[in-house]
Amino acid sequence: MRPEILFPLFKPVTTLPGVGPRVGSVIEKLCGGGRLLDLLFHLPTGIVDRRYAPKVAEAEAGRVATLTVTVGPHAKPHNRRQPYKVQVSDDSGFLTLVFFHARDDYLAKILPEGETRIVSGVIERYGDNLQITHPDHIVPVAERDQILKAEPVYPMTAGLSPKTFGRAVLAAIEATPELPDWLDPAVTAREGWPAWRPAIEA
Which of 20, 33, 39, 102 has the greatest count of CB atoms below 10 A from its CB? Predict the structure, then answer.
């Protein structure tokens, strides 16, 4: 019989906040099972380092940067083939956020003119101007902690965004119980292995 302390690990992923039946079925397909344990064992294949946080004028093209900026004017496209552009700035200079096939109302909501936002993505140079095309993250200053300084990159599948999957993983880690270590303490000390919960969190 399964020990009660392990019950949370065998709950369906649909018990996690924001994971309904549709997302749950995609996660089950991706992870080879629909339990929290399956989700936790779907390991990342890399890391995106978001610690680089320069002033706009000092941002280097080709690097992932996390910028604190003030939202400026929106330039809506005249046709669907043109991008939607939003100018942002700090006290050092300007940068353009570029979106293709974007919804005007959505961008107006997440990028209200005059407000401060944290934006993270790959810096590009277009002529003499700096830009970020489809930023990975746009959040208010109060939600800065939502942008992880070291963001795991997971193998993905169609029908599931990295942001949705990442939130599910964090929720699964939060639901993970503290388990007593079943390995010999001498072995873990010799090998430098972490305990169960720190290993999952890492």
Answer: 39
